[in-house]
Amino acid sequence: MKWKTTLQVAATYVGAVMGAGFASGQEIQQFFARFGRWGLAGIVVSAVLFSLLGWGMLDLQRRWQISSYPDFFNHLLGARWGRWADGLVSILLFLGILAMISGCGALFYEYFGFSRWLGIFLTGSVIAIALWFRGEGVLWINSVLIPLKFIFCLGIATAAVFFATSGDGEGIVILTNPIVKNWALSAILYVSFNLTLAMVVFASLGRDVQRPGARLGAVLGGVALGIFAFVIGAALLRFPDILGLEIPMVAVAGKLGDWPAFFYVVVLWLTMITAAIGNGFSLVSRVVDTGKLSYGKATFLLLLLLLPIAGVKFSHIVQFVYPLFGYLGLVFLPTILYFWHRG
């Protein structure tokens, strides 16, 4: 049972961080690949921080007996600032789910040639089924889908690095960003960007992630994220002609042929589903904690609000949602380390 919990927590950690931006290569491109080989060093730094902070988060949750992310915020920031963080994160969670469902619709339309709304409703149905089984449903769907997409994406990136022949790494295009000009700072910001969502997912799962072996799962999850990000970064640096594209990893898969590109798009869809499920469970759990709605009614209301507006453009949502997560995460990163060290 200990190893079962370890693997479930590791998969859930990877699922919380490895959203569409990660698997598409866009996040790795913006935060690491644009710094060239120093970006690969930044990935190693981020993997260490993910493992360390993941262990710290779960250790604090076990110590404080956390069952919801507002409770975690109150312990970290106090009641006043905890309520502020709670409200902002609830909004960001809703927008994050909206971004994932909207992105699924875009994938169905742009790559499969199907109706955008077919992708939206099919994705919504999978999310509804996973949420129906509550915390165990979130852990189990991550346990099944995360290893599948991790192995496939890692395999495609590794194959491209070693077997694709074009773009041998010369003339690498370094993308500019006036906000972050240092690879080490970029690595820290990347961790803070993703840590908030992982923290919210873990806190919402409560006792499901307070079992023996859970903290080791967080460490393994951080290592897995580092390995995957490193391979994607190496693949992006090997093919400078794809740097700057909206979904660079599909282009990397295309270097191996049409079928690898097609299956990579399928994996991207699974990635968006797992990210939406993690966000959805956290948000529904928060609504239930207020005592105003039951779990079933809160889930139904969430999907009822999301689906009609899910046709909004994916890139427009991501443009605003992701930076907000990053700024919020900068508050939690040192606070978690402080309380963990003090304990």
From TrEMBL:
Report keywords, A-Z.
Membrane, Transmembrane, Transmembrane helix
Give the domain of life.
Bacteria
Q: Where are the transmembrane segments?
A: 35-58, 88-108, 114-133, 140-163, 183-205, 217-239, 259-283, 295-314, 320-340
Keyword Signal among record annotations: no
Q: What is this protein called?
A: Putative membrane protein
UniProt source species: Candidatus Desulfosporosinus infrequens
Lineage of source species: Bacteria, Bacillati, Bacillota, Clostridia, Eubacteriales
